[in-house]
Specification:
The complex is a heterodimer. Chain A is α+β, with helices and mostly antiparallel strands. Chain A is built from eight helices and 20 strands. By secondary structure, chain B is mainly alpha-helical. Helix content of chain B is 69%, strand content 1%. Classes of the chains: A alpha+beta, B mainly alpha.
């Protein structure tokens, strides 16, 4: 069932895509610098990063629109680095959808099948199947410009899935949709992927999208992969201050290790007194402590414990319905963000100007190598 | 959002009553009536008249002051004699045929040369496009007549072309280029090339190149992507370019007159001769009316293509 290159089935759970030391330069700039990365068979993998981080280049290398300057790209164990795009058993859903404006929805979906020389009757059947899959029955004779944005997105998806690709590349698949539609489509994509057993490789700059869609995420920055892991790992165990800051909100405190106490270290921060954090590092080492806003406990009374309790004053509150975000000016002058669920219907329990204490458990903070957040 | 039109091609359009909107329609309508329709009716009327040696050189001349009876008499004296003459004399028919033939061949050659040029400009690096575009338009900055005279110079027996051919040893005796169909074709292709290149360039330039990537991604090699995507999307430009060339070439006078031979006259030349040499205004007018009728169908095709392009996505 796999296309022209006759790729054999890799062992289930094995690597479907392997980037081996891949580099791609544009002039002097390395868009992708010496990247090695495996994408497993039958997984939903996300490349996450800010614009210009090289994630789209990586996708285009895989689709065959670019060829690597160095390194190899393997698909199911076979080097495809030099295979032209029209011979790769890989299909792509473009960010702009790239629907052929002069062709009907049906002809758009049939385009790839016609290139394979499939019989007319089978093409018609497959097109019907795909239209049903994306719930666009009856819209076959329309032209793309007669469809809404969401419908166009579905046609693009149907077109890219029509050939039964081994691997589907999705370039910012939800970027052009409005928020409500985006959420619906997220679930739809996950459902489709499971049903079809196709490996999805999605490129996105939206960390929420990546986390809710993907089985695994590769976070990219400046042409390099900075962390690969499951969404929870990346959120809770970021590899660097940069990752912590890019994936979700975070408070970062620079400092150095003042003492080591069993599995805990005491960090003298420059901006927020001393903290006790789970982890290990030699005394005197420069570190960054990362604490996510929701890990803080917002207290209106000074607690018993002396450690990990930062006194400050609420400077403003952003009510967001389910949660409220509090900006707290610590007594050191440093401003941190804390989040608290609005568990009751009374709204926020503190008001701007109130005196508060931010408490946190040593395990709630992450000890990171020092690094500037973007 | 509005649903796509299901039945027929009519789309509901919101009625707008902006104060100036009527005027916007009236002005071009007036322009067409005054500068196109009225002259056309005058020409049409002359084509139904008789030649006389007088000033103006035809009869009847309508004079509203002469009264209703006179007007009725004048109307009765109109005839289709001029058209009969055109139909009976093979000289005219041959000229029409010749004109259509020349225009078709020239348009085909223009397409073969113009499309690759337009394609190359559209695919050139962004920074280069304005320069290349300028090069195509540049000839317009000198007078059309001067450029044709320049070609006469080039195509002369001892002109630049023959000098070059002799120098390169391609020919031993200089061939005669002027006063031939080849010379006319060279002149036509040279003069009308921008009219072919510009509309095709315009459609290719705004084509989304990711469409070609999408075609490749779906398994189409380059030549097939060109055939299935680029060419259909460039069609409005191709049609516009062909009509912009075909229509004026059909009635072309200057180029065949200066570069062609006197034996095979195109209809523009015949028309000129009837008007200015033979002073036969009715026949000349009739020739013009028939020419217009000939031109009408490609113009209608052009409009249909434009409507289709307007209905399609930008």
């Amino acid at each position: 069932m796999i296309g022209a290159t006759g790729v054999t089935n890799a062992a289930p759970g094995g690597a479907l895509v392997q980037f081996e030391n891949v580099t791609k330069r544009y002039g002097d700039v390395a868009a992708v610098a010496n990247i090695s990365l495996d994408v497993m068979d039958d997984e939903f993998f996300a490349l996450l990063g800010p614009s210009g981080c090289g994630k789209t280049t990586l996708l285009r290398l895989l689709a065959g629109f670019e060829t690597p300057d160095a390194g190899r790209i393997l698909l199911a164990g076979e080097d495809i680095s030099q295979v032209p795009p029209h011979r790769r058993p890989v299909n792509m859903m473009f960010q702009s959808y790239a629907l052929f404006p002069h062709l009907t929805v049906e002809s758009n979906i049939a385009f790839g099948l016609r290139q394979e020389g499939m019989a007319r009757a089978r093409i018609a059947e497959r097109v019907r199947e795909m239209l049903a899959l994306v719930k666009l029955e009856g819209l076959g004779p329309r032209k793309p410009h007669q469809l809404s944005g969401g419908q166009r997105q579905r046609v693009a998806l149907a077109r890219s899935l029509a050939k039964h690709p081994r691997l589907l590349l999705l370039d910012e698949p939800l970027a052009a949709l409005d928020k409500k539609l985006r959420e619906d489509t997220q679930f739809e994509l996950a459902r489709l992927r499971e049903r079809l057993g196709v490996t999805f490789l999605v490129v996105t700059h939206d960390q929420v999208e990546a986390m809710s869609l993907a089985d695994r995420i590769a976070v990219m920055n400046r042409g390099a992969v900075v962390q690969v892991g499951r969404p929870a790992e990346i959120y809770e165990q970021p590899a660097s201050a940069w990752v912590a800051d890019f994936v979700g909100d975070v408070n970062l405190f620079d400092g150095e290790i003042a003492a080591v106490e069993g599995g805990l270290v005491r960090v003298a921060t420059r901006t927020a007194f001393q903290m006790v954090v789970a982890g290990s590092a030699p005394v005197g080492a420069a570190v960054t402590v990362a604490i996510r806003p929701e890990k803080f406990m917002l207290l209106t009374q000074r607690p018993e414990a002396r450690d990990n309790c930062l006194p400050g004053t609420v400077s403003d509150i952003a009510y967001q319905g389910g949660v409220s975000l509090y900006r707290v000016r610590l007594d050191t002058g440093f401003v941190v963000q804390a989040a608290a669920a609005n568990a009751t219907r009374r709204g926020a329990v503190v008001a701007a100007g109130d005196r508060v204490w931010l408490a946190f458990a040593p395990e709630a903070a992450v000890l990171l190598p020092p690094g500037e957040a973007s | 959002m509005s649903e796509a039109p299901q039945a027929g091609r009519r789309r509901p359009r919101p009625e707008r009553h902006l104060p100036g909107s009527r005027l916007l329609v009236v002005i071009p309508a007036l322009w067409l009536i005054v500068f196109f329709l009225v002259p056309f009716f005058i020409v049409g009327k002359i084509s139904l008249s008789q030649t006389v040696i007088a000033q103006p050189p035809y009869l009847p001349v309508f004079d509203l002051a002469a009264g209703f009876e006179q007007l009725k008499q004048d109307l009765a004296s109109l005839s289709l004699d001029a058209y009969g003459l055109i139909a009976s004399d093979t000289l005219y028919l041959f000229s029409y045929f010749k004109s259509v033939q020349v225009a078709l061949i020239a348009t085909a050659i223009l397409l073969c040369i113009g499309f690759p040029i337009a394609y190359a400009i559209a695919r050139a690096p962004r920074g280069w496009q304005p320069v290349l575009f300028m090069l195509v338009v540049l000839p317009f900055w000198t007078s059309f007549l001067i450029r044709i005279y320049a070609w006469m110079n080039i195509l002369q027996r001892d002109g630049l072309l023959n000098q070059a051919l002799l120098a390169l040893g391609i020919v031993d005796t200089p061939p005669a280029w002027l006063a031939s169909d080849t010379a006319v074709m060279i002149g036509l292709v040279y003069s009308y090339l921008p009219f072919m290149v510009l509309p095709i360039y315009a459609t290719l330039e705004r084509m989304d190149e990711t469409l070609l990537e999408a075609a490749a991604d779906l398994g189409a090699p380059r030549w097939k992507a060109f055939w299935l995507v680029t060419l259909p999307l460039a069609r409005p430009g191709i049609v516009a370019g062909m009509l912009l060339c075909f229509i004026p070439i059909l009635g072309e006078f200057v180029i065949p007159d200066l570069l062609g031979s006197s034996e095979t006259a195109m209809i523009g030349q015949v028309l000129w001769t009837e008007f200015f040499s033979n002073k036969d205004w009715p026949v000349a007018s009739a020739l013009a009316v028939v020419l217009l009728a000939l031109l009408l169908w490609p113009i209608l095709l052009y409009q249909r293509a434009q409507i289709r392009a307007a209905e399609g996505p930008r």
